[in-house]
Write a structure and sequence with these properties.
- About 55% of the residues lie in helices and about 10% in strands.
- The protein has about 300 residues and is an alpha/beta fold.
- The chain has 2 domains: about 80 residues; about 210 residues, no CATH class.
- Strands 2-1-3-4-5-6 form a 6-stranded parallel sheet, sandwiched between helices.
- The chain is globular, with a radius of gyration of 30 Å.
Length: about 300
């Protein structure tokens, strides 16, 4: 007769056998999986190493090209802006190194930067457009005509063009200029600082596109602001580090077609292109330059008349 003890021992044996099978199977599977993962890791490490080497090589080549172009800069831009004055408008995200480099190249081209006007985040923010639009119409100097539009970027650019450039419109008095700048700064739309002396040309300098849900609205606002400066003042160049964002918008928007655009201002080639594009604007021309597909890296040499 089979005892209860026999049943217990048999059950324990079955359980132990199952457990041993699971352990052995898991061990075999683990070895297989670990082997595959180890191979994948080695492959990925190799790919990372290759990409890192390619990146470092590209950076070294870019640095070498920048050094060569920097050495050739006096010959490339010399005399292109002879006796011309330029004002810089720095968008949020503009790199101080880009502003400094453009200022130096304008000098090498025979011109002079009269000052830099800093735009704040609020100047391009879609949710501040109504407040900015209302302020622009209130501080408009006598005799200055705004474009017939409700677009805040275009209106702001037209006002700034009348204040910082010696363009086609009537000259504003120092008191009117001071009142407008103070109101825009107090409203949080301009960075504090000394108002630039009006110049013959304007260069709007941006950076890489700002991330966020309102990135497209900010890019459009900056492109339209540059177009407003061009319409309300004098020759204008929009230069940024990226071919996306404001520059891409300006290149496809008919309302900004008279503005010259440059991408890649973070490199020497882009900075040279910015100065030559300003000279092109002084001669009444416009174009698009940079690293984007189908574009020339540099504008044709156009000495200022």
């Amino acid at each position: 007769m089979i005892s209860f003890r026999y049943h217990v021992v048999s059950l324990c044996a079955v359980v132990l056998a199952l457990a041993l099978g699971v352990v052995l199977g898991a061990s075999s599977l683990s070895q297989t999986m670990l082997g595959a993962l180890s191979t994948d890791r080695a492959d990925l490490s190799g790919q990372v190493g290759t990409l890192t080497a390619e990146r470092d090589t590209a950076r070294a080549q870019q640095a070498a090209a920048d050094r060569v172009l920097a050495g050739a800069a006096p010959a490339v831009v010399g005399g292109a802006l002879a006796d011309r004055t330029v004002v810089l408008l720095a968008a949020p995200g503009a790199d101080p190194a880009d502003l400094e480099a453009v200022t130096g190249l304008v000098g090498q081209a025979g011109g002079r930067v009269t000052g830099t006007l800093g735009l704040t985040d609020a100047a391009l923010a879609p949710d501040r457009a109504d407040a900015l639009r209302g302020l622009v119409t209130r501080v408009l100097p006598a005799g200055v005509q705004l474009p017939s539009t409700t677009d805040a970027g275009t209106l702001t650019g037209a006002l700034l063009g009348s204040l910082v450039t010696a363009g086609r419109g009537p000259s504003s008095s120092p008191a009117e200029i001071g009142t407008a700048f103070t109101a825009l700064a107090d409203g949080g739309f301009l960075a504090p600082g000394v108002a630039p002396v009006p110049a013959q040309l304007a260069v709007v300098v941006g950076g890489d596109p700002a991330p966020g849900p309102d990135a497209s609205g900010r890019a459009t606002a900056l492109a339209h602001l540059a177009g407003g400066v061009r319409a309300g003042g004098a020759g204008t160049v929009l230069a940024t580090r990226s071919a996306d964002g404001a520059v891409a918008t300006a290149r496809t928007d008919p309302a900004v077609r008279d503005v010259s655009t440059v991408d890649g201002i973070g490199a020497t080639a882009g900075r040279l292109a910015t100065v030559l594009a300003a000279a092109e604007q002084a001669g009444g021309g416009a174009g698009a330059y940079g690293s984007a597909p189908g574009l020339s890296a540099l504008p044709p040499r156009t000495p200022a008349a």
